[in-house]
């Protein structure tokens, strides 16, 4: 058994021998790997803000009963909040260049389990959408694809064998991208961002130029009272939910910034501008094609399939390239935001046996168990999925924000994130677990669960107050978890953390001290992790 475990250990990389506490992927980022520029962060935000989920959000809100103006207002409001939280949760990585799990709500060991499941679920959802794009490409080549591949899937699954094959193809095509280290992702992010922007411009021009006398459908042209203020609030939360995973994991990538201003300005320009524009494109394209196809096709792959079946050979060629462009952009979103984020979390939990690449591949395997094929079938289901991100991820974000700004007061003792023995670290807490984090998460999540269950299963009836609590779940969950996390740290103090915060110099001086070590060269991080022995 010992020989097997020895064989499974992570290979030594970057001069760092992997052990129970650290490996090369989670140690502080040295100068040579800080390669992300303004344009890298800009392109990353393009992919977070201009993906298929965001495109579908606007038209899905209209399908839910909001007017297009209400939907747009909800999207603008939601994305302003997204930008603020994205910037706030990037700060520890920008200045300390350390891993999100260890600089946020968790300790150096046990409570990093707390965030392990999240990336797999989000990856599954986005991978299924990517599979739908591959399905479009296959349909463009073989319009009779569904008859060529006999369907052996039960009706209850909500998918066909051909769709499942396309999903597997997308998963397989994504695997080589996961092999690329984050500090070398710039070219792929350029390609992915350019691809989705060009596609959205082309499909907008095509839909408006070819709608003819039929004009815009009722999605925009039909007057109506729209939805209530609570439904607008639900739209805001859904808009945030589409980017919640990016907010939670952004610190993983802000630590690769060449300079803090590269990350700040890249996010300022890239978010929320592209999210708003993408949602507007979704509303306009859905309205412009509604009369042509007899119904609002809010799901973009479904629209491309309609183009294939209602057009000729040139339409099939256009749909093929459209599906290919969307597939590339989905990889550009899903691999860094979810697969690699899961890899970072697993590497932080099992650094001796799992590095970034292994963790990313494990995340992909676990994602299949989430049954993502049931999540994008209707506008209501789609919005329920987005809002579920807000239910479960919002409290995590609240705890992370409170930990860094209130409890730690922006002061991190980086060497104690990677001790040679856990109980020597000020972040060891209680047997390696900062129990305040899961308690705060539960307090932030529980109030929204009844309304969430009722939204997913209409047969469940709950009081209107609980439904409204669910409509603003991200806001309430974030605030409650932040308040509880802070209160617990004041009621049951982590004395060693408190002692360091009180005795350490100002955050600015502390950040300069650590940056001076990193800026000394490739091997300068040894000054921080030299005590970490295998």
TrEMBL record:
<dbReference type="InterPro" id="IPR001248">
    <property type="entry name" value="Pur-cyt_permease"/>
</dbReference>
<keyword id="KW-0472">Membrane</keyword>
<dbReference type="GO" id="GO:0015205">
    <property type="term" value="F:nucleobase transmembrane transporter activity"/>
</dbReference>
<dbReference type="Pfam" id="PF02133">
    <property type="entry name" value="Transp_cyt_pur"/>
</dbReference>
<feature type="transmembrane region" description="Helical">
    <location>
        <begin position="161"/>
        <end position="180"/>
    </location>
</feature>
<dbReference type="InterPro" id="IPR045225">
    <property type="entry name" value="Uracil/uridine/allantoin_perm"/>
</dbReference>
<feature type="transmembrane region" description="Helical">
    <location>
        <begin position="41"/>
        <end position="64"/>
    </location>
</feature>
<feature type="transmembrane region" description="Helical">
    <location>
        <begin position="428"/>
        <end position="449"/>
    </location>
</feature>
<feature type="transmembrane region" description="Helical">
    <location>
        <begin position="187"/>
        <end position="209"/>
    </location>
</feature>
<feature type="transmembrane region" description="Helical">
    <location>
        <begin position="268"/>
        <end position="288"/>
    </location>
</feature>
<dbReference type="GO" id="GO:0005886">
    <property type="term" value="C:plasma membrane"/>
</dbReference>
<feature type="transmembrane region" description="Helical">
    <location>
        <begin position="469"/>
        <end position="488"/>
    </location>
</feature>
<keyword id="KW-0812">Transmembrane</keyword>
<feature type="transmembrane region" description="Helical">
    <location>
        <begin position="382"/>
        <end position="407"/>
    </location>
</feature>
<feature type="transmembrane region" description="Helical">
    <location>
        <begin position="71"/>
        <end position="91"/>
    </location>
</feature>
<protein>
    <submittedName>
        <fullName>Permease for cytosine/purines, uracil, thiamine, allantoin-domain-containing protein</fullName>
    </submittedName>
</protein>
<comment type="similarity">
    <text>Belongs to the purine-cytosine permease (2.A.39) family.</text>
</comment>
<feature type="transmembrane region" description="Helical">
    <location>
        <begin position="229"/>
        <end position="248"/>
    </location>
</feature>
<keyword id="KW-1133">Transmembrane helix</keyword>
């Amino acid at each position: 058994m010992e020989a097997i475990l020895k064989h499974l250990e992570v290979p030594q990389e970057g001069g760092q021998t992997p052990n129970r506490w650290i490996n090369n992927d989670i140690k502080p980022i040295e100068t040579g790997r800080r390669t992300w520029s303004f344009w890298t962060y800009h392109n990353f935000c393009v992919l977070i803000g201009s993906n298929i989920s965001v495109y579908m959000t606007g038209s899905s809100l209209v399908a839910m009963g909001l007017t297009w103006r209400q939907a747009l207002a909800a999207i603008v409001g939601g994305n302003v909040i997204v930008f603020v939280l994205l910037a706030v949760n990037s700060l520890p990585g920008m200045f300390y260049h350390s891993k999100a799990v260890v600089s946020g709500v968790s300790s150096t060991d046990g409570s990093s389990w707390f965030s392990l499941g999240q990336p797999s679920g989000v990856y599954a959802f986005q991978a299924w959408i990517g599979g739908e794009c591959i399905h479009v490409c296959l349909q463009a080549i073989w319009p009779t694809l569904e008859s060529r591949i006999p369907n052996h899937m039960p009706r209850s699954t909500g998918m066909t064998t051909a769709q499942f094959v396309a999903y597997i193809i997308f998963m397989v095509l994504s695997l080589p991208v996961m092999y690329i280290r984050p500090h070398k992702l710039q070219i792929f992010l350029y390609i992915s961002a350019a691809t989705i922007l060009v596609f959205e411009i082309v499909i907008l021009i095509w839909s408006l130029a070819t709608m003819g006398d039929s004009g815009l459908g009722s999605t925009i042209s039909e007057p109506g009272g729209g939805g209530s203020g609570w439904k607008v609030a639900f739209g805001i939360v859904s808009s945030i939910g589409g980017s919640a995973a990016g907010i939670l994991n952004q610190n993983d990538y802000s630590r690769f910034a060449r300079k803090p201003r590269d990350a700040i300005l890249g996010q300022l320009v890239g978010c929320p501008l592209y999210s708003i524009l993408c949602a507007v494109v979704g509303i306009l394209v859905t309205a412009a094609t509604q009369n042509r196809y007899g119904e609002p096709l809010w799901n973009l792959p479904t629209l491309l399939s309609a183009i294939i079946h209602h057009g000729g050979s040139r339409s099939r060629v256009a749909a093929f390239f459209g599906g290919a462009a969307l597939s590339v952009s989905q990889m550009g979103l899903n691999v860094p935001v979810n697969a690699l984020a899961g890899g970072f979390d697993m590497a932080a939990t099992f650094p001796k046996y799992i590095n970034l690449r292994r963790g990313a591949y494990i995340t992909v395997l676990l994602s299949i168990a989430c049954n993502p094929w049931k999540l994008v079938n209707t506008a209501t289901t789609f919005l329920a999925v987005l809002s579920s991100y807000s239910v479960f991820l919002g409290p995590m974000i609240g705890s992370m924000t409170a930990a860094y700004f209130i409890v730690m007061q922006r002061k991190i003792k980086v060497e104690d994130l990677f001790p040679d023995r856990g109980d020597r670290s000020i972040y060891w807490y209680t047997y390696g677990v900062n129990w305040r984090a899961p308690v705060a998460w539960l307090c932030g999540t529980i109030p929204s669960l009844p309304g969430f269950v009722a939204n997913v299963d209409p047969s469940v009836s709950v009081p209107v107050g609980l439904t409204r609590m669910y409509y603003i779940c991200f806001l309430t969950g974030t605030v409650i978890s932040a308040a509880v996390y802070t209160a617990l740290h004041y009621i049951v103090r982590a004395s060693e953390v408190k002692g360091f915060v009180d005795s350490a110099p100002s955050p600015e001086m502390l950040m300069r001290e650590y940056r001076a070590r990193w800026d000394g060269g490739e091997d300068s991080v040894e000054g921080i992790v030299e005590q970490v022995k295998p």
